[in-house]
Structures
1.
Amino acid sequence: MAKVIDMLKCYIEALMFFPKEQIYEAVWKADPEHCGAAVANVVYSLRRKIGDGYIETVVGSGYRFVV
């Protein structure tokens, strides 16, 4: 059960930030030099869970939560 909670925490933390490098640093606590695929996978999973139209891709920068 702890694994589910850890994943949920990861998704919530990802929503708090907008540039993909900042998302990576905050969630994975690592250098964001090669962060694109990891962040993209989390955003993809979030979109599948909450539905389309809530997370917008900002080309060349990151993601924006649309309210």
Note: The two ends are 30 Å apart (CA to CA).
2.
Amino acid sequence: MKASAFVYPWDVVGDPDAARRIADLGVQQVTLASAYHSTRALTPRHPRHRIVTARHAAVLYPPDPERWADRPLRPYRQSWVEGADPYGEAARALADAGLEVHSWVVLAHNSRLGDEHPHTSVRNAYGDRYPWAPCVARPEVRSYVVDLAAEAAVRPGTRGTELESCGWYGLAHLHAHDKIGGVPLRGAAQYLMSLCFCDSCHAGYASLGADPKELRRAVLRALQGVWTGEVTQGGGDRVAEWAEVEKLLGTDHAATFAAWRDRVAAELQRDAVAAVREAAGAPFQVLLHADPAPHRLGANVGVDPAGILRHADGVVLPCTGSDAARADVLTPFVPHRTERTTLAANFTIVAGMGGSPATLEADATHAAGLGADEIRLYHAGLASDADLAAVRTALERLP
């Protein structure tokens, strides 16, 4: 199985041994961040630093000034990695080590954008704004996301891309000193708290013949039981989650939200993939980080498996966890695959972040049996030496 490791440019820039160390894991590819959200990252082996603080979402290459001239929404430049083009510098070092480089592009997740342009954010049924979550139904946001996808994906020396958060984002986001865990919000409640009621979404609901005010009241009624504890939140798979949404909202209201949000997400994904292909002008693999439940949202956006595989070359799917969880995300895509389709199983290999590098061989073998033909390893720069040793052993044993 082809394996690719996620990497940040700051893992490589300034560390002459990084590229060879990653290649020695036994991976054939790296997925290198070119546009990324704010984060604080550990660099346990870098000779010059241990912590990198990316203060806001930014691109890790010099953006094209002509593309973004006179546009209020534009990508932010970074200042925490040395050099004018840390992505390009890292990509060259990794390619020199024999690795195929693909870009990793985070799209609809940008807190600074929401702070500076408040009207672009998702606004929940209570009127609360989520600055980290741009509403992809808004024309100006959609234009920004599509153009960012094209620019950040197609970088010199890059042979493909993986688009993250190419769709709806919502409540779930680790914010600074997060304090929202007092009432646990599982799948259905997360969805209800992530439904958007900005003016663009109001117009969208109305275009489907629905009353946006009544939809908002329905969401507030459904959530009231969550706050009081009268609603027992279930867990389970994607089918059970959506059944709970329909129970809480009513099937008609649930169908209206799904119709609007699914249409917006599908159009964005189609346009982003097309823009990347046009920018590449040559064979260039385009994958999306995805989930087969259209109502899910976040980094792994909900998609229609048949629809997305008509546009993209494949998907990267979250496969850390139980065998049942892997089957839940992988099997819906298998009937719709073609000869060009890639189904990449993504495994967290950082034990301190909930990963299980010790079981990678068994987990990857199980994923392959379900239809996965590649694996992704999150994250070569964050993992400890012990984690990387376990990964190296597992990859040696995998066919």
Note: The first helix runs from residue 9 to 12.
3.
Amino acid sequence: MTESTDLGPEDQKIVTLARSARARNGVPEGAAVRDETGRTYVAGTVALDSLQLSALRTAVAMAVASGASSLEAAAVVSGESALSAEDLAAVRDLGGAGTPVFLAGPDGAVRETATAG
């Protein structure tokens, strides 16, 4: 993983969407993914007694359920200092090993960029 703060406008958009989902829903994480057609899917953490999903895995599931066949990029806004292996695996399953995943803090500043691989 490398630190990155220089994002293009489309990547900055998914970071902003992820940050908004986190704040709006009062959840620990917000996430957004962009599919191969440019559509975005935004989600927050799911924490039910019977179902526990990170925000990123929820966003990937929403993309799959909507017919996306690939991902261009993903973003997570979280207080965590690293992306989980399970989150990276979900992005890799749909987007491939080279899909960039941005991890931003609650302030929206991107702390790290990883690839799903």
Note: The longest strand covers residues 71-78.
4.
Amino acid sequence: MIRTEGVTDVTEETFAAEVLESARPVLVQFTADWCGPCRQLAPVLREIAREEADRIRIVQLDVDRETAISVRYGVLATPTLMVFRAGEPVKAIVGARPKRRLLQELADVLARVDPTGPDRTGPDRTDLDAFPKVRI
């Protein structure tokens, strides 16, 4: 598998702990050794992993070795980038892209993460602290 600094390799044995049970959102790159666009994406993911470490975790999974997970999430092409939040896939992106474009596509995921505390604004929750308290 393509080794990328700052990006953890996950397997069937580690997927639940590393991805599904993570407190932070996790971007999973479904990749393969033979995938040219995956190689092009490696430096982009390395930079994002370093710069956004407090808001998102990036891991990679080899589709040839971990076919069960790839099938489970309907991965048909590499690279597929899938963002998981609270154990559920919330976004999928297929294909390599430059860093700026990838960050634009991840903006909604990154915006929901408070780097100073737990993620209180999950996908279907409203932050009630933002509203003034009313006494009746």
Note: DSSP finds four helices and five strands in the chain.
